Give the backbone structure.
Amino acid sequence: MITHPFTYQAPATIEEAVQQLGKGDDAKVIAGGHSLLPLMKLGLAQPETLIDLRHIASLHQIRTEADGTIVIGALATHRDIAHDKTVRAKLAALADAAGEVGDLQVRARGTIGGSLAHADSAADEPAPTLAYDATIRAMGPAGRRDIAARDYFKGTFETALAANEIIAEIRFPAPAGRTGGAYAKFAHPASGFAVTGVAAVVTIKSDGTVERAAIGVAGVAAAAYRATEAERALTGTKADAKAIVEAAAKAANGITALSDLAASAEYRKHLVTVYAKRAIERAIQRARA
Amino acid sequence: MGHTVTVTVNGTSYSREIEPTLLLVEFLRETLALTGTHVGCDTSQCGACTVLVDGRATKACTMLAVQADGATVVTVEGLAKNGDLHPIQRAFAKEHGLQCGFCTPGLMITAVDFLERNASPSDAEIRHAIEGNLCRCTGYHNIVNAIRTASAEMRQAASGEAKIAAEVQP
């Protein structure tokens, strides 16, 4: 039950939505509503106005541009993303992560744009968004603004998105030749949120050497992060079992881990090394396939 | 400020003036008096309120009724056709897939969406599919049996229809 009254608008264009958001009263944007509506039921969010993006057709699309960039509309649901043929083939870590969000019903309505805008520290999709070096394209009163994923996640529920901006799409550059990706997750047994979620994206050369490794980690710190020490350790190796273990062991280096009832900070940092290993192994397998 | 919404529920179109705060599950239960859809937790966790919205299993407690304007909704009341139970309903009865029955409508709707996309699931896939539906009585075992049984019956029905269609080909 939602007790706090609000007005509801469902504009036809993102420009209109931005205009309505900028009107000054306490307005919130709603996409799939799977973060916002529970907060409104608890009274933790009490917007005066809800701006529903659902009639903005372009935001629902997943498309590939001429240069190979894969563009995922903010309103693409986790289910759309998990089942999309292009995403599965080119952005396997993202498809994996989307398929692991919440449960079947949550994936049916929850959106990637909503997940990134809400920025729960235990959300799944920030990890592959970081690992694929995606760009978050936001629309605001001054027009569009591109934010690199690396500059986007600031903290728990904190992002680089301004209060008057709306995420329009998430742009994933086409991965180079022999690239494989995978997401490995230790889910909270009750909530399904990531206690640890690791997205690994690995590009190998024809001789099997790792050319590029990118590892995004969710659920562990206040904001999703790139495990740069682990990436450096893996790059240039032949990705044999020893190199993978040594790289994975560095996936939580320098990180202040969260501590809660599900996992202490120490245990979380251990989980990261285990799940980094699994994600890297799977990504390498896929790159070699 | 009231909004007029038009929603097709179980094949019937309903237009009603509602407040934006009204949840889809409240619209179904209180506005349309379709009480087969249950409210278990009202926190998006238990799945008792699951209905199909444009073919997708959706927690009706986590969607505003205004967001369903123009949508096609199927609730548990819409599963049987002309008095014949849906295969999932027969399978839940046959396999004793329920005890108190409170979670059953949501579980059956989730299963219908799932089986639509995966005609011959493994038990592991069935268990993954029903992660968003909590049952406090059964321990899930018979629910998994019921969904597997329904999938077999639905495959058989589909192949029977295909055979009939092939036979009537010139």
In short: The CA atoms of residues 51 and 75 of chain B lie 5 Å apart. Chain B is about 40% helix and 15% strand. Chain B has two domains: 3-78, 87-167.
